[in-house]
Write a structure and sequence with these properties.
The complex is a heterodimer of chains A (about 450) and B (about 190). Chain A is α/β, with parallel strands linked by helices and about 450 residues long. Chain A folds into three domains: about 130 residues, Response regulator (Rossmann fold, 3-Layer(aba) Sandwich); about 160 residues, P-loop containing nucleotide triphosphate hydrolases (Rossmann fold), CATH 3.40.50; about 120 residues, Helicase, Ruva Protein, domain 3. Helix content of chain A is about 50%, strand content about 15%. In chain A, helix 6 packs parallel to helix 7, helix 13 crosses helix 15 and helix 18 crosses helix 19. Helix content of chain B is about 30%, strand content about 15%. Chain B has a five-stranded mixed sheet with strand order 2-1-4-7-6, with helices on both faces. The chains are: A alpha/beta (about 450), B alpha/beta (about 190).
Chain lengths: ~450, ~190
């Protein structure tokens, strides 16, 4: 009959007066809470050493130990304990001291039962919020922790050393490397090691946007700054305030935006398109390129002054073909990740498959390897992935097998196969086929493919 | 499972500043709601039952008075002490009533139940109804029930007199399950 409150708490009551302890314990038990009592400081410390409590009510004036000292020792023993101090009118000053020392609240004796009820409810909520906050922080740490950079080759070990070296600094970093080598991963690793790690990491793919759009994307715009600017829009630099902005494919930025970028990097202020007033912004820049910027400078395609602004600390990621010793390691890493993500039985690569992967030149670098393994996990059958399950570009065998079929038949068969392997997860199948979902739905309709009833 | 609890009798005792009419009205109200004999018995001759004031407060010490009543309670059933004086506890500013789980007695004060105290016309029937609600609530505690989150249950906590009026006069199914049949059958 006592477990009636929706959120029962475990309470420790500390008071030297037995009648106070008895009355409070009765009351809290009636309210459905679990109660233990202690009539002196020593007993209270013994109780918290034995078990944890959600909430403690502590009489600030007790013989044997100063209430503030007991509060401090209780908090030391159980940092998560929410403390409420009970005081008589005469000791409000002490209660204020207790609050300054971290007590959640104080309550003056004698109190209304309702006051007590409200206080406990609020303290319970406070405790839940604190726990939730801790949980979220832990999750944030987990989310902020970037994908590990996998590689044991000397080239990648050097990359990792440089990431460690530059991470905690505020230095601007320029990451060089071919497409698919993992430049964004390195940028994320640098951000995660910086003091800005709880701030945002804003990624801008400069190559994906036309110059006019890029300008507005980077710096924002005011309402009415241009046709279609119906609302004020914050730019990526503003969004990166307190964090890091990652400018991918920096070599694709046109001359006008290069000038603007140079000014922003020098002045650390941005001016929205259509605005007059500059806005101070606190950001760190990491830029990346797959092109030779110095060559572009020589051709007059990239500003030298911007280059020197960006080229403070350079990290060059070697292409995968130059570090074949990393291929098996990376393949194993992706294999584990995708089998877990797709909830499939553990798989391993056959020795022939490993040999084929190592022999392949990987023009698309790690990204291509990642896609190859994802596809192999979808189409392969546990426990082993053989050469046949590796993508066409790797093996060249699928084309032979399909030689006698029409293009449509091959497509239909392939689409059905990928859908089945994806358990009819259309998004996943579309990603593997490298087409959008709409196109895949059209193909499903065109070829009359039907999802099995048992799903 | 043990035997279900039984409420064989309620014996009402006047504990000061309470008219016979008030007590009779209360007993009549409680009799309507409890299927056990309810009767008024003479106040035992014990000086402790005069009560004592809380330090610096014009209120009877509820814990002390309940203890005194428990000390003189004998025989089957429970003793219901009723006083017209205000009841407090050392740690609580006031209480409408008091009971201990498994105790032989319970205590109810009518001091804060009279509408006249709040500037409204006196209403003896309403006062008696409120007092009977408090008797039922404390009886629930005496048989081990805690406070109930259901606002329409008599075991819902009433911090002020209006809450007694808003609260129902019956035990909800969950609270009733472990209480004596005599307490929940009407």
């Amino acid at each position: 009959m006592t477990e009636r409150t929706p959120h029962p708490l475990s309470l420790l009551l500390v008071d030297d007066e037995p009648i106070v302890l008895q009355s409070l314990a009765d009351w809290f038990r009636h309210e459905g809470h679990e109660v233990e009592t202690a009539s002196n400081a020593k007993e209270a410390l013994r109780r918290v050493a034995e078990r944890t409590f959600d909430l403690a009510f502590l009489d600030i004036k007790m013989p044997g130990m100063d209430g503030l000292e007991l509060q401090r020792r209780l908090a030391e023993a159980q940092p998560e304990l929410t403390l409420v101090v009970m005081t008589a009118y005469a000791s409000v000053e002490t209660a204020v001291e207790a609050l300054k020392s971290g007590a959640y609240d104080y309550i003056t004796k004698p109190f209304d039962p309702e006051e007590l009820s409200l206080l406990v409810r609020r303290a319970g909520e406070h405790r839940s919020l604190r726990s939730e906050n801790l949980r979220l922080k832990e999750r944030l740490e987990a989310v902020a922790a970037p994908e590990p950079i996998v590689g044991a080759s000397p080239g990648m070990r050097r990359v990792l050393e440089l990431v460690e070296a530059v991470g905690a600094s505020e230095a601007t970093v320029l990451i060089k490397g071919e497409s698919g080598t993992g430049k964004e991963l390195v940028a994320r690793a640098i951000h995660a090691r910086s003091l800005r790690r709880y701030g945002p990491l804003v990624v801008v793919n400069c190559g994906a946007l036309a110059e006019g759009v890029l300008e507005s994307e980077l710096f924002g715009h005011e309402k009415g700054a241009f046709t279609g600017a119906q609302h004020r829009h914050k730019g990526k630099f503003e969004l990166a305030d307190g964090g890091t902005i990652f400018l991918d494919e920096i070599a694709t930025v046109g001359p006008r935006v290069q000038v603007d970028l140079l000014r922003v990097l020098e002045e650390k202020t941005i001016t929205r398109v259509g605005a007059q007033k500059p806005i101070p912004v606190d950001f760190r820049v990491i830029a990346a390129t797959n092109r030779d910027l110095e060559e572009m400078i020589a051709c007059g395609e990239f500003r030298e002054d911007l280059f020197w602004r960006l080229n403070v600390f350079t990290i060059e990621i070697p292409p995968l073909r130059e570090r074949p010793e990393d291929i098996e390691l990376l393949a194993g890493h992706f294999l584990e990740r995708f089998t877990r993500a797709m909830n499939r039985q553990p798989m391993r690569l056959s020795s022939e498959a490993v040999a084929a992967l190592v022999a392949y030149p990987w023009p698309g670098n790690v990204r291509e390897l990642q896609n190859a393994i994802e596809r192999a996990v979808v189409v392969g059958s546990p426990p082993s992935i053989g050469v046949d399950e590796l993508p066409l570009r790797v093996t060249g065998r699928e084309a032979d097998r399909a030689g006698a079929l029409s293009l449509e038949e091959v497509e239909k068969s392939h689409v059905r196969s990928v859908l089945e392997r994806s358990r009819w997860n259309v998004s996943q199948a579309a990603r593997l086929l490298e087409i959008d979902r709409g196109t895949l739905y059209n193909k499903i309709e065109k070829y009359g493919l039907e999802r099995p009833l048992d799903g | 499972m043990g035997n279900p609890p039984v409420l064989s009798e309620l014996r009402f005792v006047a504990l000061g500043e309470l008219s016979r009419d008030q007590l009779d009205r209360l007993v009549a109200e409680v009799s309507r709601r409890v299927a056990a004999p309810c009767r008024v018995v003479p106040t035992p001759d014990a000086s402790e039952l005069h009560g004592r004031l809380l330090d610096g407060r014009p209120q009877l010490d509820g814990d002390h008075l309940l203890g005194a009543l428990e000390g003189v309670a004998e025989g089957p059933g429970l003793v219901v002490g009723v006083t017209g004086r205000d009841l407090g506890r050392k740690i609580f500013r006031f209480v409408f009533g008091l009971a201990r789980s498994g105790g032989p007695a319970l205590l109810v004060s009518t001091a804060r139940l009279d509408p006249a105290l709040y500037g409204l016309p006196a209403d003896p029937a309403l006062s008696a109804r409120r007092a009977s609600a408090e008797v039922l609530h404390e009886l629930g505690h005496a048989f081990g029930a805690g406070h109930c989150p259901r606002a329409d249950c008599i075991m819902h906590f009433a911090p002020e007199v209006e809450s007694i009026d808003l609260r129902g006069m019956r035990f909800c199914g969950s609270c009733a399950r472990d209480l004596p049949e005599e307490l929940v059958s009407r």
